[in-house]
Amino acid sequence: MITRRLDNYGKINRDKILSFRWDKKIYKGFEGDTLASALLANNIGIVGRSFKYHRPRGIFSSGVEESGGLVTIGSKDRRDPNVRATTQELYNGLEASGQNAFPNVNFDLAGINNFLGRFFAAGFYYKTFMGIPPFEWGKGTAIWMFFEKFIRKAAGMGSASGLPDPDSYEHAHDFCDLMVVGSGPSGVAAAIEAAEKKLDVILVEQDSLIGGDQLAENNFDNSQIKKQLENLGIKIMTRTTAFGLYDNCVVGLLERVTDHIAAPDVNIPRQRFWTIRAKHIIVGAGAIERHIAFNNNDIPGVMTVNASKHYLNRYGVLTGKKIVIATNNDSVYETAQQLSEAGANVTVIDSRTNFKIETNKNYEIRKGYVPYNINGSKKINSLDISKSENINKSETINCDQVLLSGGWSPAVHLLSHRGVRPKWDYHNACFLPSDTKENITMIGSSRGLWNKNDCIASGIAGTTDALNRLGISKTNYFFPKPGGWKNPIQPLYEVKYKKSRSKSFVDYQHDVTSDDVRLAHREGFISVEHLKRYTTLGMANDQGKMGNIIGLSLMAELLNKEIPEVGTTVFRPPYTPVSIGALSGRNVGKHFRPLRVTPMHQWHIDHGAKMIEVGLYQRPWYYPKENETLSDSYIREATTVRKTVGICDVTSLGKISIQGPDSNEFLNRIYSNGFSKLQVGKARYGIMLRDDGIVMDDGTSWRLAENEYFMTTSTGEAAKVMSWLEELLQTRWTDLKVNVTSVSEQWAGVSVAGPKSREVLNNCVDDSLVITNNNLPFMGIASTFLKGNIPCRIARISFSGELAFEVYVKSDFANTMMDLLWKNTKKYNGCLYGLEALGALRVEKGHVTAAELDGRVTIDDAGLSKMASMKKSYIGSAMRKRGVLKNNDREILVGFFPTNLKETFNAGTIVCEKNNIKGQGIGRITSVTYSPELRHWIGLGFVKGGLDKWKDTTLVGADPVRNKQMNLRVVSPHMIDPKGERMYA
Amino acid sequence: MIRINCPYCGERDHSEFSYGGDATINYPSLDASEKEWTEAIFFRKNIKGFQFETWHHSNGCRMWLVVERSTVTHEIKSVKPCHPDLQKVVENNK
After folding, report:
1. How far apart are CA A656 and CA B62, in angstroms?
2. Among A333, A634, A673, B59, which is most buried by a count of CB atoms within 10 Å?
3. Residue A267: CATH number of its domain
4. Is A730 on the interface with B (CB under 8 A)?
5. Which of A730, A734, A878 sits opposite B37 (nearest CB)?
6. Is residue A89 located within the same domain as residue A61?
7. Are residues A773 and A733 in the same domain?
8. Which domain CATH number covers A891?
9. Could you tell me the pLDDT band of residue A52, with boundaries at 50, 70 and 90?
10. Which residues of B touch A881 (CB under 8 A)?
11. What is the mean predicted confidence (pLDDT) over B22-27?
């Protein structure tokens, strides 16, 4: 192929010269070039090596369907692999390189794969998995494990940088009445018609310029159109691809904001991911020209006919000197004319024998001929042609370029995303979009219209359809009939090579040949879906835009069926690749998910807390003194709580205000234990079950007044419990007069725990009489004031097992409360304690948390049978008695000690019987801690049969992940102060 | 993306809502038998076509809604509050 830039062709800006680097050499191009057009202008034919066979590949197209010109753009952390050279706009300083080749695309050592082709045929991976005969020397998996790294290295495309993406991306949203996809003649007509009818219109175009296929026209100028669209208030989005259609007219767009700019402003995102909610969508996405499968149809210099027209008229690049155009339809003759006028020597071979074309005849037309074989390897030397009725080499034409047009495939992809299967049109040899009830209308050549006037008419009809469906108008309209060529197309998908071992490519990008399709058929993979997966046809990043129909036609021929009987593959989003960065937008790093902090967050940090994420919350983990480690710190904190006093932020607990005359009845129904007799001024610990009898959550509810309660939930289940209460009140018990409101953010809570906790509080409350043992007994509550006239709620609740109080103030007073409590805690040599010490204290006490209540545990499993009322019915009361939950081999909550008290263990350890260490064992350890009180490691967990069954037996803790094993003793989960004398003190 | 026309907030993305479940279940009374409860919570129809289902506008007005949605096409025919009294209010305000 000899390509060159012509002086008086193209719409590029020749005043602006851009220099770019291709495989380490510097070349020049012009503003308005794509990388592909600039490479062609510099007569660079080979731009990559193919996926499996490492055959030299050139540029096949001028658009998104490109399956040969895939290159790597940029370097270091901005290296972007598998970019289509045909859509990458040129900018000054662009760096690009060929892929899948070593040392370079012109001389690739792995090119030897081309001669090992039969080892890389379809199904190669699958067969390798099964094993290579003779099967004795290894199972398939082992062979695969051995060869995988070599195969992966040999087959593939570009590689990712492996570095964090330095660019920023953005998510954006918009609404409109009408979304028009594609700015070709039909899309523009539709948009104008709609805007004139006062619809709010967005027009998207994946190209940098509006115009669609008109950009390949000799004298097309889009400035008038652009002005008209803008004057009508149409929002035009160029460099934006509608990559997917979703339910209810939601469109996903990818806007490439800076991919064409040499040095973009760092404050501008590289790409924007748009979600557009439209009322109606009109798709004028155009059609894609197909190639023809014949031997060596991938040699650099092969291109689609229309691409060559684009390069000539848009970029001023003549893609060959001596060009053969092979076709089966009328669409090529205008191009043939223009190429010959531009100075190329053009021969058209047309598979049809009987047709009429009006032309100036300055090129040769050979009727009844098809392409048979290309001679050459890195470039085309000549083309063997054959008579179409009797396939065999009949003569050879010297040429440097072969342009192909095997027909056109309407881009029905977006409609296919909605599950609408296209229908086969025999007359035009293509799939046409089917009708849909959804508000989507297909127009232009994406509904199979081949001439411009029909396309424009269809655009106007499309908008009328939209207006009718939106109920704005009731106007009759009709769409032009599909087609529009003077002579009918003659189906031509493959020209069979007579010799064995042909390389006749169906899918260029995945190196799928027509022999591969035949192999799949021989081996029984005849369904379209099997064919696709077995051969990987259409599974590369072009998603078979050019080759799918050829593959289908080959299978149809083998099965002696028609194409529609074989089926169609369903296109799924995205239409063209979407970068992961755009999908994640700004939700990366710290912003990956929301962060919740309690109102005393900064207070904790100022007082030396190390924080930890619990769910979305940041909570104090531990408060190290000087050089303390985590374990030094939490052991000191827990010891201090047991000895004197400690304070701990419990604000993250869910808090719900429950009000209304039926509140008591409501709580009595949702908690498993009785609430009907709970007096005003008292709190009660309660357990909620799900409908199916499994524990949902636990917490406390405080009766503040006759008809008002304050409920706390666990941190993790707060949102779920809130939704559950709302569901019950709005859907099931609609007669109950109860109102629930989340007040989690409104209250800040602190636990003051330890034998000296009452003394600390005495110094903090206005009236210390309120909190005496008589006035505030265990589970008593008080609404009172902290010093400084701060209203607060105090409940005598203990999670640690010590004498303890939970104090709540309005969030605004959180820091004042912390200062007050901390000042007085210090007087008793108390401490601040974090989540780690809180965990140690509760494990010692055998209190369950989310680690234990994991959605599989019943109230009996958790050893809380006493909490299940026998006197009333409640949510889950019927189902907790079902057989499977009453089996006596259920795992029951127990405590674990290592037999050798010096040993440690971890949560996640599997509990097994001695000499039977396998599978899931007979239990599991869910929480562990060092017990400052007992001075050794302890654990909580579950074992089948519980304490009674195993109290005298040594069990084994197996921890295969950490490669540990230890002997265990099963003990009561209440490992210290089982009678609870301390909390009642 | 499904768009749900909340009677309180207007048409919103389904990502604002949480799916509940079958809206036609008549939950038995709390003292009903295990068998009745088993029927209600485990034996569910797998409808192809329109079904009534509950959605919670959890990132919006917090109302539980009955949505009549096609499981085939995601087409939504109607959206009402779950609570019968609120249904009446919404109906009267139309």
Report:
1. 14
2. A634
3. 3.50.50.60
4. yes
5. A878
6. yes
7. no
8. 2.40.30.110
9. confident
10. 34
11. 95
Domain boundaries, chain B: 3-92
Q: Quick check: is A396 in a domain?
A: yes
Q: Which residues contact A112 (CB under 8 A, 6 or more apart)?
A: A54
Is A581 within a domain?
no
In a domain, A865, yes or no: no
Compute the average pLDDT of residues A99-119.
72
Q: pLDDT above 70 covers what percent of chain A?
A: 96
User: Is B60's Cβ below 8 Å from some Cβ in A?
Assistant: no
Say if the ipTM goes beyond 0.90.
yes
- Check which CATH number belongs to the domain holding A622 and give it: 3.30.1360.120
**Sequence-ordered list of residues with C-beta below 8 angstroms from that of A163, at least 6 positions apart, any chain:** A76, A77
Q: Do A250 and B3 touch (CB under 8 A)?
A: yes
CATH of domain B3-92: 3.30.2270.10
Nearest of A33, A70, A285 to residue A181 by alpha carbon: A285
Distance CA A166, CA A780 (A): 56
Read off the pTM: 0.89
Q: Which two tokens stand for residue A820?
A: 């007050």
* pLDDT beyond 70 at A676: yes
* Residues A124 and A30 occupy one common structural domain: yes
Of A438, A730, A873, the CB nearest to B82: A730
Backbone angles phi, psi at A228, to 5 degrees: -65, -45
pLDDT tens column, A435-482: 999 999 999 999 999 999 999 999 999 999 999 999 999 999 999 999
Tell me, yes or no, whether A817 and A784 share the same domain.
yes
Nearest CA in chain A to B18: A723
Residues A149 and A215 in one domain: no
Specify the number of domains making up chain A: 7
Go through A881-913 and write b for each residue having 16 or more CB atoms within 10 A of its CB, e for each that does not. Answer: eeeebeeeebbbbbbbbbeeeebebeeebbbbb
| Full residue range of the structural domain in which residue A515 is found | 504-573
Nearest beta carbon to residue A875 from set B30, B82, B84: B30
For chain B, say whether A246 makes contact (Cβ under 8 Å): yes
pLDDT in tens, A678-736: 999 999 999 999 999 999 999 999 999 999 999 999 999 999 999 999 999 999 999 99
Best residue of B34, B55, B83 to probe chain A, by most A CBs closer than 10 Å:
B34
DSSP secondary structure of A252-312: EEEEESSTT-SS--TTS-SEEEEEEEEEEEEE---EEE---B-BTTTSBTEEEHHHHHHHH
A342 with A371, same domain: the answer is: yes
Residue A859 lies in a domain: no
Residues A28, A51: one domain? yes
Q: Which of A833, A853, A870 is the last residue of a domain?
A: A833
Residue A132: the pLDDT is 53
Last residue of a domain, one of A805, A833, A861: A833
Partners of residue B86 in chain A, C-beta under 8 Å: 730
> Across chain B, where does the E strand assignment appear?
3-6, 10-13, 18-22, 50-56, 64-70, 76-81
| 3-state SS class at A371 | strand
Q: Is B61 on the interface with A (CB under 8 A)?
A: no
- Could you tell me if B73 lies within 8 Å of chain A, comparing CB atoms? yes
Nearest to A547 by CA among A537, A555, A556: A537
